Design the sequence.
């Protein structure tokens, strides 16, 4: 975040509170949300985050209660927390923990992954990076000016190569 963006957002927080601590909380939340969104983040989106988070600051805090003396609920936690013993898909016995905890990464895994990534073409790498970042198929088509049929072909090629390297 540049100094100009910081000052602009800090000035925007004056609409919600005069308390410097709460203003810094709003900026922190907007910054973290901006990092999550990556390239898609704009100042307008960060201002929207601050606007909606400002309502929570009366009862919640982004900082620990023992340090700041606010409520023990923090603004990051949401009611829809994901636990490791939660089923991965409704009606299925496999849990998220079964997938996450059973992976043991070894140096050979890194070598296989690097070999897989090096085998990708420029377009396949572009699609893989965008899918990993959370872009939808429609957004990928618009961002890189490819046809939906070409995107489908690239995704299929990625799947075939991934299966080969498993």
Sequence:
């Amino acid at each position: 975040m540049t100094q100009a963006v910081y000052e602009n957002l800090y000035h925007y927080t004056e609409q919600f509170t005069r308390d410097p601590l709460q203003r810094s909380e709003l900026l922190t939340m907007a910054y973290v949300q901006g990092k999550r969104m990556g390239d898609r983040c704009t100042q307008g989106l960060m201002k929207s985050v601050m606007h909606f988070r400002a309502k929570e600051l009366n009862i919640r805090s982004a900082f620990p209660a023992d340090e700041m003396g606010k409520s023990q609920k923090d603004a990051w936690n949401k009611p829809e927390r994901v636990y490791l013993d939660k089923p991965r898909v409704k009606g299925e016995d496999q849990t998220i923990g079964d997938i996450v905890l059973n992976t043991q990464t070894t140096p050979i895994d890194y070598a296989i992954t690097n070999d897989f990534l090096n085998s990708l073409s420029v377009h396949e790498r572009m699609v893989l990076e965008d899918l990993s970042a959370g872009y939808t198929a429609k957004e990928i088509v618009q961002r890189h000016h490819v046809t939906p049929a070409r995107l489908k072909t690239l995704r299929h090629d990625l799947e075939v190569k991934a299966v080969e390297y498993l």
